[in-house]
Design goal:
The chain has about 375 residues and is α/β, with parallel strands linked by helices. It has helices at about 5-15, 50-65, 75-85, 100-115, 125-135, 155-165, 180, 215-230, 235-245, 250-270, 285-290, 310-315, 345-350, 365-375, and strands at about 70-75, 95, 120, 140-145, 170-175, 190-195, 210-215, 270-275, 300-305, 320-325, 335, 355-360. It contains 14 helices and twelve strands. The strands form two sheets. Strands 1-7-6-5-4-2-3 form a seven-stranded mixed β-sheet, sandwiched between helices. Helix 3 (about 75-85) packs across helix 8 (about 215-230). Its cofactor is pyridoxal 5'-phosphate. Keywords: Aminotransferase, Pyridoxal phosphate, Transferase.
Length: about 375
């Protein structure tokens, strides 16, 4: 077929190269570390540097997000830390979002600090906040939109323009939206990063990360940080991710449709004080999201109208929702960042006490609503 352009066709066929692989409808897994060159010059040497299975995956991901290139890593954090390390040098300054994934803040506050990199955290990343905290040595704007736990939506076009005006790189973690629902490079960003462990993998059986950006920058990232740190994704994980991408569009449609119903149910429930989900028209970020996103995934948070002890009991009484820290898989999962005893950290990230985060999986939406309803209705302080 011609070079596919629509997302579902990219996921199904781009890069699979049936003529090269004897007509195999599923490209073979190159589960090997070494490529010898005695018989033929083919451009491969060692899987830590490049591998045909990994390259198929990277071609699909780059096309999905309208990026010149993609590089996959062993985990989402490997992708993030490699990107930030490639952009920052001693004496540089970073503007970062407070409500971004907490391990990134920990990395900036510890590993980057050791090398003389300074960081300033912004709560809303408004242009006013940026101007107030911008420094002559600011080299990176780092953010998420929607952000972790409270799903704050930021004006990405404006932020990217301001970053470029001062010579900084604009970097975003785009995991929540997936390449289907938001394309940050089209909005002016230099780098878009995903934890492939989440929706891209979708089956809770893969660890991985991906960085999307310019071809020259990502070639350097591959040859330096990824290769030198040994942070390359293994071929089997790449092969599993290729499998997962084939159903990405249909999975995300189900996640999104079910999440819309669950969010509406929670918003109307008498035992729920607030729901954080940009897909709701009542959400403070909804209007902005409609200008830069084409859909909404299945991750949201809500604050029950009870004390922490009652909320803890409510979470434990859920039957279908499993409890765990990850999300984006086929299974529905609940996590409780708002029950963290570290009140200073909650305040820093803007997380209300009692906040419960849920990942809406692929179960029937009625089943999930019934499970939440029974747990909330039985909740008592």
């Amino acid at each position: 077929m011609k070079e596919p352009l629509r997302p579902a066709d990219i996921c199904a066929h781009l890069g699979d190269d049936y003529d090269r692989y004897l007509g195999a409808i599923v490209p073979p897994l190159f589960q090997n570390s070494l490529f010898t060159r005695k018989r033929e010059s083919h451009g491969y040497s060692y899987t830590r540097i490049n591998n045909p299975t990994i390259e198929i995956l990277e071609k699909k991901l780059a096309a999905l997000e309208h990026a010149p290139a993609a590089r996959v890593f062993a985990s989402g954090m490997a992708a993030i830390t490699a990107t930030l390390s490639s952009l920052l040098h001693s004496g540089d300054h970073v503007l970062a979002l407070r409500s971004a994934y907490y391990p990134v803040s920990a990395f900036l506050n510890t590993e980057m600090k050791k090398y003389g990199v300074e960081v300033t955290y912004l709560e809303h990343f408004t242009l006013e906040e940026i101007e107030k905290n911008l420094q002559p040595n600011t080299k990176v704007f780092y953010l998420e939109s929607p952000s972790s736990n409270i799903f704050r939506v930021l004006p990405l076009r404006d932020i990217a323009k301001r970053a470029h005006a001062c010579g900084a790189a604009a970097v975003i973690d785009n995991t929540w939206s997936t390449p289907l629902y938001q394309k940050p490079l089209d909005l002016g960003f230099d780098y878009s990063i995903h934890s492939a462990t989440k929706y891209l993998g979708g089956h809770s059986d893969i660890l991985g990360g991906v960085v999307l950006g310019g071809a020259e920058q990502l070639e350097s990232l591959r040859n330096n940080q990824r290769s030198c740190w040994g942070a390359c994704m293994d071929p089997f994980s790449a092969w599993l991710l290729i499998r997962s991408l084939r159903t990405l569009e249909v999975r995300m449609a189900r996640h999104s449709a079910s999440a819309a119903r669950v969010a509406q149910f929670l918003e109307q429930h008498p035992r729920v004080r607030k729901v954080y989900y940009p897909g709701l028209k009542s959400d403070e970020g909804h209007a902005q999201a409609e200008t830069q996103m084409t859909g909404y995934s299945g991750l949201m948070s809500f604050v029950p109208d009870e004390d922490n002890e009652a909320i803890f009991k409510m979470v434990k009484s859920l039957d279908v929702f499993e409890e765990g820290p990850s999300w984006g898989g086929f299974e529905s999962v609940v996590n409780t960042p708002g029950l963290n005893s570290n009140l200073e950290m909650l305040q820093f990230e803007g997380i209300p006490q009692g906040l419960v985060r849920i990942s809406v999986g692929l179960e029937d939406a009625d089943t999930l609503i019934e499970d939440l309803d029974q747990a909330l209705s039985a909740m008592s302080g």
